[in-house]
Amino acid sequence: MRPARVLPPALLACLLLAGCSSVRLGDPAASATNSPAGAPAPAGGGKVIAVGAGPQKHYTVQQQPPAGSCHYRYEHGEPLEDRKCTPGAISPAVTQANLGSTICRKGGYTSGIRPSAYITGKEKRLNAASYGYTGRMADAEYDHLISLQLGGDPNDPRNLWVEPADPGHRKGAGVNNRKDPVETKLHTAVCSGQITLAAAQKAIVTDWNTALTSLHLG
User: Fold this and answer.
1) What separation in angstroms does the CA of 9 have from each of 19, 33, 35?
2) Fewest CB atoms less than 10 Å from the CB: which of 131, 158, 167, 204?
């Protein structure tokens, strides 16, 4: 006689109280109830977005990937980040529950948590070497992959990269890229309740070029 299988407490309660006879043993849905509350949302391909240190009173220059180890991707001529070097990182200080007191509060939030130009200037030069960027530094943005207005970590090296200018950009015209308005539209949608914070963050790290359409924001 085979020994009887012991049902997990959560599944047993479901079977007894809710009649969940369709849940199979070993089904991912059966074990989902054991996931820790508040765990980071999976990003594209089921990956979890890393959580950084969050805002700091005193920032320090962060170590960057080795020179030449990061490689731009291109989509319709648009430069995109290396997903291994820059997978994104979120701030633990920003959650769905505290949007009103953080990124959605009136009077602004990001200016008070942004690292100084002294810190980011040094990091930008190091990161340019990581990506092999040799263009004009003034035309490239040291960009937060998940922007601060979407709860991105302020100074985690996994969330920052030297973003080259867009195709057709006039040399010497300064920073001007198409990612910024996408971030602003996502921020507006998060703060108005159209989408969740986690959905916006996932869309950005998956592909910011398709973030708006993937969330039906046009």
Assistant:
1) 14, 10, 14
2) 167
* Rounded distance between C-alpha atoms, residue 173 and residue 175, angstroms: 7
What is the DSSP-derived secondary structure letter of residue 46? G
Please report, in tens digits, the pLDDT of each residue of the chain (218 residues total): 444 444 444 433 443 333 333 323 233 333 332 333 334 555 555 679 999 999 999 999 999 999 999 999 998 888 899 999 999 999 999 999 999 999 999 888 999 999 999 999 999 999 999 999 999 898 999 999 999 999 999 999 999 999 998 776 566 555 567 899 999 999 999 999 999 999 999 999 999 999 999 999 97
Report the b/e string of 1-36 with b at 16+ CB within 10 A: eeeeeeeeeebeebeeeeeeeeeeeeeeebeeeeee
- How far apart CA 59 and CA 31 sit, in angstroms, is 40
pTM of the predicted model, to two decimals?
A: 0.78
Cβ contact 89:81 at 8 Å: no
Q: Which long-range contacts (C-beta less than 8 Å, at least 24 apart) are formed by 169-176?
A: 169/139, 171/136, 171/139, 172/136, 172/138, 172/139, 173/139, 174/138, 174/139, 175/138, 175/139, 175/140, 175/141
Asked if 52 and 158 touch (Cβ cutoff 8 Å), the reply is yes
| Residues 157 and 64: beta-carbon distance below 8 Å | yes
Decide: 158 and 119 in contact? Cβ < 8 Å. no
8 Å CB contact between 18 and 29? no
